[in-house]
Amino acid sequence: MAEEVKVFAPATVANVACGFDVLGFALHEPGDEIIMRKNDSGEVSILEITGDEGKLPLNPLKNTAGVVVIDYLKHIGKSNQGIEFILHKKMPLGSGLGSSAASAAAALVAINELMGNPLSRAELLPFAMEGERLACGAAHADNVAPALLGGFVLIRSYSPLDILPIAPPEKLVATVIHPQIEIRTKDSRSILRHSVLLKDAVTQWGNIAGLVAGLLTKDYGLIQRSLKDVIIEPIRSLLIPYFDELKKSALEAGALGCSISGSGPSIFALSDSQETAQKVAKAMTQVLERTTIGYDIYVSPVNAEGPIVLSKK
């Protein structure tokens, strides 16, 4: 077994328009890196976190990456195993791109590697979900599942947990723009309605079924018709400056669909070619360049692989 390991875990887009809390997919960039090693301390410790501007706690009991490692070691009967790690946050916090999920996924893949991989990546998912509970108050899986497994993942049920990995259509490319403002997931969940109109629910059910069918059959027209959210987007979009303009620009540039990534403020668009995805990126950046809001822009095919072990020794 390795004594030290370095792991990359990807950012993710959750909800994917109509799939609130039940659908997500992984990106190739951005993402987080973790360097983890064994020691003789008998404790889990976080040595350093870079890229977080001092916002994340080094106390492992209060840190998503730390608590999942502690729970994992307890589960496999190795609570006394000493572990230390450095976490490199290479993605913006509070961006709607699954920052806490990427940290948890990287930490779990790293500790599992150090322990000889006794659990499959799917078996790591419940630990990652508890990390999400610590981060935002809800143990949802639409970020951590694709962060761990790659590709698209449908969460059919949370009780019992029942997930369906979906291989991404080959031509599908995501454009993601991150306006440099922060929206806390807890806040964006608190504004949601607790009940919806039946007619809206029926529309949403049809769209999520159509989107999953379109992904499975690689029917880009069906994907396009289904990438619509009539329940969550109308409320959360009010928190995102220039959302309507950004969405309009993406669709006019040829995107199949466009919506909020996770809880925002990032916005994603899906296209059926790299060329179109780049045009969408240019159109969306032109919107924010007319404002005082900074931004990050990413163009990425769907990441079918998930976390990568970069090195071990």
Word description of this protein:
- The chain is of the alpha+beta class and 313 residues long.
- The protein has 2 domains: 4-166 and 303-312, Ribosomal Protein S5, domain 2, CATH 3.30.230.10; 173-301, GHMP kinase, C-terminal domain (Alpha-Beta Plaits), CATH 3.30.70.
- It is built from 10 helices and 11 strands.
- The protein has helices at residues 64-75, 99-114, 121-136, 144-149, 185-190, 198-217, 220-226, 233-236, 243-252, 274-289, and strands at 4-14, 23-39, 44-50, 82-90, 152-158, 161-166, 173-179, 257-260, 267-271, 295-301, 308-312.
- The strands form 2 sheets. Strands 1, 2, 3, 4, 5, 6 and 11 form a 7-stranded mixed β-sheet that branches. Strands 8-9-7-10 form a 4-stranded antiparallel β-sheet, with helices on both faces.
- A hairpin with a 6-residue loop joins β8 (257-260) and β9 (267-271).
- α1 (64-75) runs parallel beside α2, α6 packs antiparallel against α7 and α9 (243-252) runs antiparallel to α10 (274-289).
- The longest helix is centred in the middle third of the chain and has 20 residues, at 198-217.
- It is globular, with a radius of gyration of 19 Å.
- It starts with a strand and ends with a strand.
- The mean pLDDT is 94.
